[in-house]
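The pair is quoted verbatim below.
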Amino acid sequence: MDRIGDTWKHSRVELAQMRVRRVDFNQPELPPTRDQCDGSQKREPAKRRHKVYDTCNCQLWRGAMPQEACDVQCCCGRKWSNAVMNHRRAFLQSAVGTALATRAMPQESTEPDRQYWLETMAKIAEPVLTNLAAGTLKQNMPVECATGNAAERRKVTYLEAIGRLLAGIAPWLEASLDAGPERDLQQRYAWLARQAIRTGVDPQSPDFLNFHDGSQPLVDCGFLAQALMRAPNELWKKLDSATQSRLAAALISSRAITPGQNNWLLFAATVEAALAMMGQRWDAMRIDYAVRQHQQWYVGDGLYGDGPRFHWDYYNSFVIQPMLLDALRTIGAHAKTWDALVPDVVARARRYAAIQERLISPEGTFPAIGRSICYRTGAFQLLAQIALWNELPAPLTGPRVRAALTAVMKRLLDAPGTFDQKGWLTVGLAGHQPHLGESYISTGSLYLCAAVFLPLGLNAADPFWSKPSEDWTARLIWRGEDAPADHAITA
C-alpha cells in the first residue's frame, strides 16, 4: 500500500479509492509534477516513483485479493484496481470526492470537517497498519529519539505505534457506516488492523512485538487493551482463534511488570478489564487498586494528580480519565463492585472536557505545558471521548467541539515537518522539534495523537457532524462576545 503523506496531493484521491497495490518503500523518491497523472492529455508515461508489484503475490495481499484486481496502469506507472477504475466516475461525483477536492476552500458545509478528519487519520495510520500487516514495521519505521537511547527504544517503540494508533481509531473501526467510500476505507483498515495484530503476536513473525521485557510494554499493552474495548467486534471477535489465544497470552504476560504509583496503575487495570471482556481470567485487585488510588489522588474541579502530587501536564487526558472511563464501563458488565464510583468519575470527566475546550485559543493553539507534549492532539483525548459518549456539558455542543478540535488538528498535524518524507510522524508539537521529546519519546510514542479521532465513531448523521460548526469559547470571548461564566464543580 502506498504511503499516505509522501505526496499528499496525489494520495488524497488514492485514500478514498483504496488503491490495491503495494509499494517498495526502499525505492528512491522522485518529486512529483503536476502533469504526471493528468489524464486530460496524452503524455509519455512518467518514470515510476516507486516499484509496484504487478500481481497480488506480494506478502501482504497473497491469497487475499484476486490477481485481476492489479492489472490496470495509469500514465504515471502506478497500478490501480479494476474495481477502482470502474467506479472512478462515481467517486468523483460523490460527496467524499467533492470534499477531498475542495479541502482548501472555506465552506459553511460541515461535511468537509469529517473528510478532513478522515484524510488526516489515514495519513497517520497508513504506514503503521500497512507495514505491520506486512511484517515490515521494524524494517521500515524510523526510530527517532534525540534525547534518549534509540537502541533501548527500538525494543518498545513498535508496540507503542500500533497500540496507540488503534486506541484512537477503534471507535471508527467499530462504527456502523453507510455503504460508500468511507465504509470501504473503514473495512480495509479493520482488515489491516487484524492482520497487524496477527503479525504482532506471532512468535515467528519478523515483527513479533515485545509485551513484557522491560517496563514500557505495560503502557502499550494498556493502550492496545483500550483499543480492544473500544472495538470488541472488529479487533477481538473477528480474530482467528489462534491469534486470540496469542493476544490474550501477550496481555497476560505484561503482569510481570510492576506499575509505578502514578497513572501506570491504570494501564494494568485496563489490561485486566480487557481480559474480562475477552473471556479470560482477570485480576480484580489490579482494577480495584488503580481505581481507589485515583479516587485518593483527585485534587478537585475535574482533575486528578498523577500520583500523590499534581502535575501541570495533559496526563488527565493522555491516560487517566479516558482509561478510568473505559475500564469502569467495560468491567461493569462483569462486576458491580465499582458501579457507585461511576457517576463521580463521569461528572469529573465532563468538567475536565469543559476545561479542555476553554484551553483552545482562537487560533487553535493551547498551552505547551508539561511532559509528553509531543503527543500532539492526544492532549485532547478526553474532550474527544466525552464528545463520542454524547456527555458534553452545557454550553458545549458537538459542532462547537468539532470546530475547536479541527482547528487544533490543523495547527499541529498540518504544520510543516510533522511527517518525514516517507510519511512517518516526527518528534515535535508544531512541526519537527526533536528536543521537545523526553528520553522516553520515540517515533512509536507519537501515535497517541490518533486519540483525537475518537468522534469519528459517531455516524455522519450525528449532530456532532451534521450541524453547522460553532465558534468555541475562546473565539467568542476574545472577539468581545458575551458568554456564560465558568464555574468549578464540587464532585
User: Anything to note?
Assistant: The chain is about 45% helix and 0% strand. The beta strands are 72-73, 79-80, 298-300, 303-304.
